[in-house]
Design goal:
By secondary structure, this protein is of the alpha+beta class. The chain has 3 domains: 235 residues, Heat Shock Protein 90 (2-Layer Sandwich), CATH 3.30.565; 134 residues, Ribosomal Protein S5, domain 2 (2-Layer Sandwich), CATH 3.30.230.80; 223 residues, Heat shock protein 90, C-terminal domain (Four Helix Bundle (Hemerythrin (Met), subunit A)). It is 38% helix and 21% strand. The protein contains 21 helices and 23 strands. A hairpin with a 5-residue loop joins strand 10 and strand 11. Bound molecules: adenosine-5'-diphosphate. Adenosine-5'-diphosphate binds next to helix 2 and helix 3. The site of adenosine-5'-diphosphate has 17 residues, from helix 2 and helix 3.
Length: 636
């Protein structure tokens, strides 16, 4: 007897959504139906373990059958099957709590339909490609029934026949082709094979389909005849069933990982790192993680998509899932598969699940542990890595306001004064003289410019090592860290300096004695500097510019180069330091005119700017002052 029933209101809404969905991922219907089939087999298998008398073990498989004439694609499983009540309950109402929440989310954000594509909403997705759907099902020892719906407000159920002792067959009657969408594509072997490979390759049961294959003809002695072929129908298993990441770690060779990486992430080179993680404990997941051996060509463009691929129970959900990995590790590629991810919730909801946060943290730790290990055991490899992606680790410290300092600080490398190699903070600190309290650094635009900084002169003379921060992120990273192993970072270009008592006394005396000179120079600089002082940093150069606590000149430059910073509004407070030992200062002492002294202020300032690799603001003024001096010198 055939009866007509109404869909539950929410199911009706979901149906409408599926039917009218205009987005491109209609193809996921197959993934959804195959995953339901796989679940149904899982349930049967569970019962055959727990109630083995009632549910005899059997060989399970899922079949895909196409009928091109009838325009149908059918998915058949020999799983648990459904009774009439099951059908009404499961297909007539939204069975899953996830789907329900999904619907309520959609109430708020009707426009964001794309999430359906990423988080299947199950059975109803069949209506994205089908104008009617039939479900034949039989539970073990029960009657078979047929559910039929055209996706309108009603469905019908009636008695039916079913081939086999238990299972379900879902028959999708494809919509007619339109100018835009060729639904009949889903009847083509290549298309189906492609979809199975893409989404359902790792379903644990064989997904079988009859396919026509071209075979070479054989002669009487069973030898292949050249150039002679015929078609044969073969029952082909379309999926490989065991995902690489589900195999025991010991069974997976490094070459397998490399091959997988190259095919999944379309790279021509083996990865620099390949990690195969099987985590068990509070959260269980498998993950394959890779660091490419070259910077992806579009890494710094907007087309680069970071994130890992997300799988749940071997079923592909989404590529480039950003919440699985912190942004500073955006160069890492890979996938995560966990039974703890619900397949059926919207993205916003998944983000908030504690599982996601925990697993993401766990993955981050695994990557950092591997990097630490490599840094220790394979310097060359680590340097290669650091050269490509090291700045991102520094960015990780900066962007977390130093919170990730403990995790990352020992992975960092910097250029330094004493040689051309990179040095870790640990090695720098180990190389410090007992008397040295702070970690010195000098920052600037290029290594050559930093090495030429006048404020390094005394350090060079004393053989004190200094970190050379040439990357824009370097100084900001160090500012976020504040210190390393209780040693404070100290900018050699900062005005303040630890001096011996004698040295301090000497400079104080000099300052008192030469107050007139300092004051006039400062006045001539017209607020460009906060101070003019005597320096203990210089050996050969006459002057340098340092900054008071706060922003350094390098940080000022970097911040003003940021997009959107036009007005150079960020200013460090600068100090002009004079080398009291330099002949230039001795000469200044002989200038009796205050007026003349004031004129020299800006010349000295500009000179220091040039020495430190910066532009001078008033180039014409600088040249005319220089000429004045030259003329005077030549005429004298
Ligand atoms: P989900 O599978 O995530 O629960 P669906 O909307 O896809 O959501 O399916 C609803 C319910 O219908 C399932 O929970 C299951 O009980 C039942 N069902 C769907 N497909 C099958 C099948 N092939 N065999 C047995 N039961 C099924």
């Amino acid at each position: 007897m055939k009866t007509e029933k109404k869909f539950e209101t929410e199911s009706q809404q979901l149906l409408d959504l599926m039917i009218n969905s205009i987005y491109s991922e209609k193809e996921i219907f197959l993934r959804e139906l195959l995953s339901n089939a796989s679940d149904a087999i899982d349930k049967y298998r569970y019962l055959s373990l727990t109630e083995s008398e009632k549910y005899p073990a059997k060989t399970h498989s899922i079949r895909i059958d196409v009928d091109k004439k009838a325009r149908t694609i059918a998915i058949t499983d020999n799983g648990i099957g459904m009774s009439l009540e099951d059908m009404e309950k499961n297909l007539g109402t939204i069975a899953r709590s996830g789907s329900k929440e999904f619907m309520s989310k959609l109430e708020d954000a009707k426009e964001d339909m794309s999430i359906i594509g990423q988080f299947g909403v199950g059975f109803y997705s069949a209506f994205m490609v089908g104008d009617s759907v039939e479900v034949l099902s039989k539970p073990l020892g029960g009657e078979a029934h047929r559910f039929y719906s055209e996706g309108k407000s009603t469905y019908t159920v009636e008695d039916a026949d079913f081939d086999g002792d238990s299972g379900t067959k879902v028959i999708v009657h494809l919509k007619p082709d339109t100018d835009d969408i060729k639904y009949s594509d889903y009847l083509e072997t290549y298309r189906i094979e492609g979809l199975v490979k893409k989404y359902s390759d790792y379903i644990r049961y064989p997904i079988k389909m009859l396919v026509s294959v071209s075979k070479q003809d054989l002669d009487d002695e069973d030898k292949p005849i050249d150039g002679k072929y015929h078609d044969e129908i073969e029952d082909k298993t379309l999926n490989s069933m065991v995902p690489l990441w589900k195999k025991s770690v010991n069974d997976v060779k490094p070459e397998d990982l490399n091959e997988f990486y190259k095919s999944k992430f379309s790279d021509y080179e083996d990865p620099l790192f390949a990690l195969n993680v099987h985590a068990e404990g509070l959260y269980t997941y498998e993950s394959l993680l890779f660091i490419p051996s070259h910077v992806p060509y579009n890494f710094y463009s907007e087309t680069y998509e970071s994130g890992l691929s997300l799988y749940s129970r071997g079923i592909f959900i989404q590529d480039n899932y950003k919440d699985l990995i912190p942004n500073y590790l955006r160069f890492v590629k890979g996938l995560v598969d966990s039974d703890d991810f619900p397949l059926n919730v919207s993205r916003e909801m998944l983000q908030k699940t504690p599982e996601m946060a925990k697993i993401s943290k766990n993955i981050e730790n695994k990557i950092l542990a591997e990097l630490k290990k490599t840094k220790k055991n394979d310097e060359e490899k680590y340097l290669k890595f650091f050269d490509m992606f090291g700045e991102h680790l520094k960015y990780g410290i900066y962007s977390s306001y130093g919170m990730k300092k403990d995790d990352l600080q020992d992975l960092l490398l910097f250029h330094h004064l004493n040689d051309d190699k990179l040095i870790s903070l640990e090695d720098y600190v180990n190389g410090m003289d007992k008397k040295q309290k702070d970690i010195y650094f000098a920052s600037g635009k290029t290594l050559a410019e930093i090495r030429a900084l006048p404020q390094l002169e005394q350090k060079k003379k004393d053989g004190i090592d200094v970190l050379l921060l040439d990357k824009n992120i370097d100084e900001f990273c160090i500012m976020a860290m504040v210190n390393y192993k209780e040693k404070t970072f100290k900018d050699v270009s900062s005005e303040k300096e630890e001096l011996s008592k004698e040295k301090k006394k000497e400079l104080d005396q000099l300052t008192t004695d030469n107050k007139r000179i300092l004051d006039n120079l400062k006045e001539g600089l017209n607020q460009k500097v906060d101070d003019v002082v005597f320096s203990a940093k210089l050996v050969d150069s006459p002057v340098c510019i340092t900054t008071k606590d706060g922003l350094s000149m390098n940080a000022e430059r970097v911040l003003n180069e940021e997009p959107g910073q036009h007005d150079d509004s960020i200013k460090s407070s600068k100090v002009l330091e004079i080398n009291p030992e330099h002949a230039l200062f001795k000469a200044l002492q002989n200038v009796s005119s205050d007026e003349e002294l004031r004129g020299y202020g800006s010349l000295l300032y500009d000179e220091a700017m040039l020495l430190q690799g910066y532009d001078i603001e008033d180039k014409a003024g600088f040249v005319s002052k220089l000429n004045e001096l030259l003329i005077k010198a030549v005429n004298a």
